[in-house]
Amino acid sequence: MGLLNVFTSIKDRAEKFLNEKNVVTDFLGKIEEKTGIKKKVIAIGAVSLTGLYLVYGYGAALLCNLIGFVYPAYYSVKAIESPCKEDDTKWLTYWVVYGVFSLGEFFSDIFLYWFPFYYFFKCLFLLWCMAPMSWNGSQIIYNKVVRPIFLRHEATVDNMVSDLSGKAMSAAENLTREVLCTLMKNKTLVTPMQQVAQAEPKSLPSSTGQTSNAKVAPSEPSEEERRPFLG
C-alpha cells in the first residue's frame, strides 16, 4: 500500500507539472499540436528514452547532472520568490545532500565509473532525493546522516573556521603592509636619482667651438719674400 501511494504521489506531481505554464509544457504543447500525441504520452516516451540513454548512451554523466540540477534549481528559485518558508527548507535540504553526495562522488569516481549502470542508478537516487513526498531521499539522508554528524562536530568546525578566517585576515594584512612598504622604499630610491639626472644635463661637444678655439700656427715667409731683404 505504501508503494502504491508513492507512485500515486509521483503521478499527481507529474500531471500537475504538465498542467503548469512553463517552458517544458509549452514545448510539449507545440509537439502535441503538430503530431496529435498527448503531452502525457510524449513525456512518458521522453523519460523512457532518457533512461535508455543513461544506460547505453554517450555523455550519460552530463545528462545525469543536468537532471539532478535543472529541476531542483527551477523550483528553488520558485521557493525563494514564494512567501512560504517550508519549500525553502525542503530545497535547502536537497542542496546540502546533493553537495555531500557530490563531494563523496569526487573521491570515489575512479571506482564508481566502472560500476555497471552507475549513472542510471545515480539518476534514480537524485530523483528519489527530489521526489515530492515527505520521506524523500534528501530528508532521510539529512536527518539520519548529515544532521547528527553536523551537531556532533558543530563547535569544532566553528572554532576551526574562526581560526582560519583570523589567520587569513592577518596574512592578508601582513602581505598588504609589506607590499606598501616595498612600494614606498622603491619610491624613495627612485626620486633622488631622477632629481640628480635633471640637475646635471649632458652637453654635446660643439664642432664650431673646437674650430674657433684651435690655435693656428704662423706660416713661414716664402723664398721670394726673403730676397729683398738679402739684396
UniProtKB/TrEMBL annotation:
Task: List the residue ranges of the region (Disordered).
Answer: 196-231
| Protein name per its UniProtKB record | Receptor expression-enhancing protein
The family note in this entry says: Belongs to the DP1 family.
How does this protein lie in the membrane?
A: Multi-pass membrane protein
Which species? Cyprinodon variegatus (Sheepshead minnow)
Query: Any keyword Ribonucleoprotein?
Result: no
Q: Name one GO cellular component term.
A: endoplasmic reticulum membrane
Cell compartment(s), UniProt? Cytoplasmic vesicle, Clathrin-coated vesicle membrane; Endoplasmic reticulum membrane; Membrane
Q: Which residues cross the membrane?
A: 41-71, 117-135
Arranged from A to Z, the UniProt key words for this protein are: Cytoplasmic vesicle, Endoplasmic reticulum, Membrane, Transmembrane, Transmembrane helix
